[in-house]
Amino acid sequence: MRVSHTKCMACLLIAGLAGTALAVNIETVPVGNPGNAGERSGEGAGGYGPDRHCGAVSYTYNIGKYEVTAGQYTEFLNKLAATDTYGLYNTSMWSTTYGCKIQRSGSPGSYTYSVASDYANRPVNYVSWGDSARFANWLHNGQPTGAQGASTTERGAYTLDGATSNAALRAVNRNSNWKWAITSEDEWYKAAYHKNNGVTGNYWDYPTSSNNVPGRDLIDISGNNANYYGNPYPIQSPYYTTVAGEFQNSDSPYGTFDQGGNVWEWNEFAALDGPYRGLRGGSFIGTYGGYGLFASFRFYVNPTNELGDIGFRVSEVPEPISLAILAFGGIRMLVRRRGLRR
């Protein structure tokens, strides 16, 4: 049985009432084995896109167990998009068939946001790379409330300072003092495919701990299933995307869910041949089908793209730990930066 690191047990929040600002809690799993070897990914490895060695990470980190959900993104909007300076909300989230059903009410300066309860734990979509970076900055800054600016969305893991164009977003790099960030391609790849068997270069072909193409069966609990395009859809209208973690026993070796299918996930890869950012993992729509879930399938698009099959996942620096011996009947308690843990 895999043991997950839990940032907070109530990780999947339902944003029921517009204007009710709650804390967003991201459940993460630890990714250890620092210094592991990477492997070749791309067209030369039987996949798609330019070749690159992927998956080698020299440090321990935590990664979102699930994709960022519509409920979590709604809380983000309610904290600082009363005046939506940098377009964090896309009306397609509510109005389109594939939308994650986040609705905006009010007028500029007093916008509020709500999400349909049956979509709150499904992945957010119609988000750009810039939206995802601003969400990460907001987590980095402690989830403040206020206008979109240097202390909320524009500084933190990334220095954005109003960047909204493809070229400007392509030029952004992760800052060295990051606390939360969009996953790098290596962080994403390692969590999805590495076999979690030491500092090896051993990888699965699919992020369901398998070398076989996943099935698409929601009922099958034997494992190796995912929500990717096929006829019929694994889950039909009106939902199309599945609730976080719905495919039981189909997690990666590190315990993440839905790194294959549901929605493409932004990563930090920045292409050299244009103003593009990386996507990984395939989605519930598109002609690539199960091929998009393959470890060697590398994909990238303009970072301003906001589509119904694009979402994201975040990474986090592990918390510093200090050991204190407390005189309570000789019991040793582990004290962490953010409070007592049992």
What does this protein look like?
By secondary structure, the chain is α+β, with helices and mostly antiparallel strands. The chain has a single domain (1-342), classed as paralog of FGE (formylglycine-generating enzyme) (Alpha-Beta Complex). Helices cover 13% and strands 18% of the residues. It is built from six helices and 15 strands. The strands form five sheets. The protein has a four-stranded antiparallel β-sheet with strand order 1-4-12-7. It has a four-stranded mixed β-sheet with strand order 10-9-8-11, with helices on one face. The longest helix has 12 residues, at 129-140. The model is unreliable at 1-20 and 321-342 (pLDDT under 50).
Give the CATH topology.
paralog of FGE (formylglycine-generating enzyme)
Mean pLDDT: 89
- CATH H-tier superfamily: paralog of FGE (formylglycine-generating enzyme)
Indicate the structural class: alpha+beta
Discrete helix count = 6
Gross morphology = globular
Largest sheet, in brief, is: 4 strands, antiparallel
